Amino acid sequence: MMPLLPDTAPRRRRLALAIATTAIAAASLAACSRKAPPEAPPRPVVAVAAKLTEQTPIASLPAQIEARYSTPLSFRVAGKIVDRSVRLGDAVKAGQIVARLDPADLSKNAASARAQLDAAQHQLDYATQTVMRDRAQAKENLIAPAQLEQSENAYASALAQRNQASQQAALASDQLGYGNLKADREGVITAEQADTGQNVSAGQAVYQLAWTGDVDVITDVPEVALSALRVGQTATVSLPAVPGKTWQARVREVSPAADPMSRTYRAKLSLLSPGPDVKLGMTANVAFAQALTSPATATIGAPAAASGTAASTTVADAQPITLPSTALFHDGNQPAVWVVKQDDTLVLRRVKVARYGERTVTVAGGIQPGERIVWQGVHTVTAGEKVRVIPPLHAEDFAS
After folding, report:
1. Is the pLDDT of residue 340 over 60?
2. Does residue 351 lie within any of the structural domains?
3. Are residues 258 and 307 both part of a single domain?
4. In a domain, 154, yes or no
5. Residue 48: closest CA among 319, 393, 374
6. What does the pLDDT read at residue 8?
7. Where does the Multidrug resistance protein MdtA-like barrel-sandwich hybrid domain lie (predicted)?
8. Which of 74, 173, 182, 292 is 20 to 30 Å from 84 at the Cα level?
9. Is residue 4 part of a domain?
């Protein structure tokens, strides 16, 4: 191998340096000519402005419309029914005759009592004349004192018998009147419990009379809703037979013990201003409402403002807002929701859940009416992310 010339190595170094400089310049020129990648478009999210919840129903229970007072109508004497002048559903007035018994036996008893009264009165008249005569003769010493005593005794006995016969005649007359069954109150016949031609005993029910006036709504409350129910509480009543209309009712009575079979508690509510549309026996739905308040000492951590400072509010002062269950997220072990700020970025906000529904949650603090809350996809977004708000495709799917 032939030796290199003395100036070959420096020449090669200069050539390599020139090539490297050219490559760097070319790379720099290529880098300057490339465009920056476009920014990712904002993520679309379903978000809806929060609205106040006027009432939070805790229970919607089946119920029935009944009269507050309902009494059986029965004869006060035994006999055979020969006539019934009213039927099921008829309205009756106080004092109206609704049924009659066969009057034959009752009339005979009354006639016999009157005859006994006449006989007793005759005996009393005779005894009165005798005692008056004997008293006058006794003053003249014309009769012995023993005879006067006998006359006095006969008069007292006749007077007692007359009084007894008078009471018997009055009783027989009353019993004759009891053969006519009268309604003691104005109301509606809700049941027929005896037929024409039937022999009934005294006190056996013939009709059931529902009094006109106060109307009750009767419902059975389960244990889970009993704690939120109290006497004097108002409720909303709707009737399937009268759609689109509601009535107000007030809890009048709550049973202190559960029914041994159903384990429910019977509640009676007074229906306010029932009106002609409400008929006895109608089925109804009763919706109770619960105040979304807790002890004022409990505080809710409110979100930080733009400055980063945190505020707190009491549950009692918080305004209830109902959201679909899909909007609920968690910040650690605390419930939270995603809030879309004015600049369309997301912030995670802790909330206080006042009630869990079947498909909704009601929060009592942490968000304000009008703030946009993410309803769907809460597990796919991050804090500070830029989003584009779109309305729900089927808002009714999130209804309670």
Report:
1. yes
2. yes
3. no
4. yes
5. 374
6. 61
7. 76-205
8. 173
9. no
267 burial class (0-12, 13-18, 19+ CB within 10 angstroms)?
buried
284 lies in the same domain as 298: no
Q: With pLDDT > 70 as the criterion, what percentage of the chain qualifies?
A: 78
Residue 10 pLDDT grade (very low, low, confident, very high; cuts 50, 70, 90): low
Query: What does 61-110 look like in DSSP terms, one character per residue?
Result: EEEEEEES-EEEEE-SS-EEEEEE---TT-EE-TT-EEEEE--HHHHHHH
- Cα 206 from Cα 192, distance rounded (Å): 6
Residues 314, 378 share a domain: yes
| Better pLDDT: 92 or 399 | 92
Q: Can you give the pTM of this predicted structure?
A: 0.53
Task: Mention every residue, 6+ apart, whose C-beta is less than 8 A from residue 187.
Answer: 67, 91, 92, 209, 210, 211, 212
Q: What does the pLDDT average to over 208-234?
A: 86
**CATH number of the domain where residue 255 is located:** 2.40.30.170
- Residue range(s) defining the domain that contains residue 141: 104-178
The residues near 326 (Cβ < 8 Å, ≥ 6 apart) are 375, 376, 378, 398
212/163 Cα distance (integer angstroms): 42
Q: Please tell me the total count of domains within the chain.
A: 3
User: Which residue is listed with tokens 């072990």?
Assistant: 333
Residue 325 lies in a domain: yes
Percentage, residues of the chain above pLDDT 90: 46
Residue 262 is predicted with a pLDDT of 84
Specify the range with the lowest mean pLDDT, choosing from 107-121, 140-154, 253-267, 314-328.
Answer: 314-328
